[in-house]
Design brief:
five-stranded parallel β-sheet; 14 helices; 15 strands; about 40% helix
């Protein structure tokens, strides 16, 4: 059975299903289709299904013309019918793994997907979980659901592995196709089969590990490493401000060391689907082993507190002009969680806006990529353009995303005061109305 599936993969005869066609799933589906595999994307959102089938793109990292061409050639299609699984040989699960309101892992999307897949799973297929999750999910959650629901035996009738997604929206160098892949199967055959598919599709190294748990923990380590180091940078920013030291200059100086230091930068908080969330998955799982993740949770507290710190600093800036927070007009520049993308998942800017509004501020925002957003059941629209009137009609401008499409010299020349939390105005020569984080 293994050899038959490997031959299908080698000959591009394997049919691929990608469950969840969002920021992770759609780029993966496109790459598999580009490699010559007939690929079917599944999503519960009818709007995404319709857009894919019409050849219309909704993800920044996907090239519109490539998507349209793949659909026309019949290599890529989408559906919301799980019965397509019975036609497929390779099933990649790319569904969300958010936190609930108590900062506990919400793996309901993975659980529900596995349950639905199990009803149609056929002999001789391989299932690969790509969604970031806690160590043990593949073997402790996914495996029993797939076996019980299908009546098949893993290792004999089907194969199972974990391969963490490494999507970085907006990255101009590393995309799905050229970012190295880590693969860990429940057995050697599962690892070999999953790795064979990725090697046939991607132009990158495929690193095989001994188990799904290793691959799951590897992804958690990646993002916890970044979370902790950004927490350090944020704490340094707070300390440096109290001491009257420019933290951005400190970091630039530290970067000159050719070993032992990697630069991380402070900001208004952490955003995106992975870095703010993944450490909580590890902390939650560690409690099962009677261990409290002190360092990880400390960095989380620091990063989570940054939106409040931004408002606190803004209050002190406004006090210089004898203006209280209550009633002040604030303009936020950028609500996307990183520069030059339209993704605002977990964006700290949304929390900054929320905290300003709690203090009675009148808040508008401008983002050339995010025309409107929804947060905690409320919608907000970006102002249309950054003209003189928009800039001169506010008491304070707070920069929370370093978009490159914005004319920062124009902003400096026409604004009363600017609080730059991203150091995006570092090259502006006249700085008398600019304060850095």
């Amino acid at each position: 059975m293994k050899d038959t599936l490997l031959k299908k993969i080698h000959d591009k005869k394997a049919i691929v299903a990608v469950i969840g066609i969002g920021y992770v799933g759609l780029p993966l589906a496109v790459e598999k289709a580009k490699a010559g595999y007939r690929t079917i994307g599944f999503d519960v959102q009818e709007s995404k299904v319709k857009m894919v089938n019409q050849g219309h793109n909704y993800i920044g990292d996907v090239v519109d013309s490539e998507l349209e061409d793949l659909v026309k050639k019949g290599l890529l299609s989408a559906t919301n019918d799980y019965s397509i699984v019975k036609e497929t040989d390779f099933i990649a699960i790319c569904v969300p793994t958010p936190l609930d309101e108590y900062q506990q892992p919400d793996i309901s999307y993975v659980k529900n997907s596995a349950t639905d897949i199990s009803k149609h799973l056929k002999k001789g297929s391989v299932v690969v979980l790509e969604s970031t999750t806690y160590p043990g999910t593949t073997e402790e959650l996914l495996l029993p659901i797939l076996e019980e629901g299908s009546g098949l035996k893993c290792g004999q009738d089907f194969f199972l592995a974990f391969s963490p997604e490494r999507v970085d929206p907006g990255n101009l160098i590393y995309k799905t196709k050229n970012t190295p892949k880590v693969v860990g199967g429940v057995d050697k055959d599962s690892t070999e089969i999953a790795a064979a598919m990725y090697r046939n599709v991607l132009k990158c190294d495929v690193f095989e590990v001994s188990s799904p748990k290793v691959a799951e923990m590897e992804k958690i380590l990646e993002n916890t490493y970044r979370n902790i180091n950004i927490g350090l940078a944020n704490e340094m920013a707070i300390i440096c401000h109290k001491m009257g030291i420019n933290v951005w200059e400190v970091i630039e100086a530290a970067k000159t060391k050719p070993y032992g230091f990697q630069a991380f930068y402070p900001g208004p908080g952490l955003g995106g689907h992975c870095i703010p969330l993944d450490p909580y998955y590890l902390s939650w799982k560690a409690k099962e082993f009677n261990y409290h993740t002190k360092l990880i949770e400390s960095s989380g507290i620091i990063n989570d507190s940054m939106p409040e710190y931004v408002v606190e600093r803004s209050s002190k800036i406004l006090n210089k002009f004898k203006k209280p927070l209550n009633g002040s007009k604030i303009l936020i520049l950028g609500v996307a969680y990183k520069q030059d993308i339209d993704d605002y998942r977990e964006s700290p800017a949304l929390k900054v806006i929320e905290n300003f509004e709690k203090e009675g501020c009148i808040v508008d925002y401008y983002d050339p990529y995010v025309k409107t957003y929804k947060y905690k059941g409320k919608s907000k629209e970006s102002i249309k353009e950054l003209d003189k009137e928009a800039l001169q009609n506010v008491d304070l401008i707070v920069i929370t995303t370093s978009h490159t499409k914005i004319d920062y010299e124009f902003i400096q020349a026409n604004s009363m005061f600017i609080f730059d939390t991203k150091n995006v105005m570092k090259n502006i020569k006249v700085r008398d109305n600019i304060e850095l984080l």
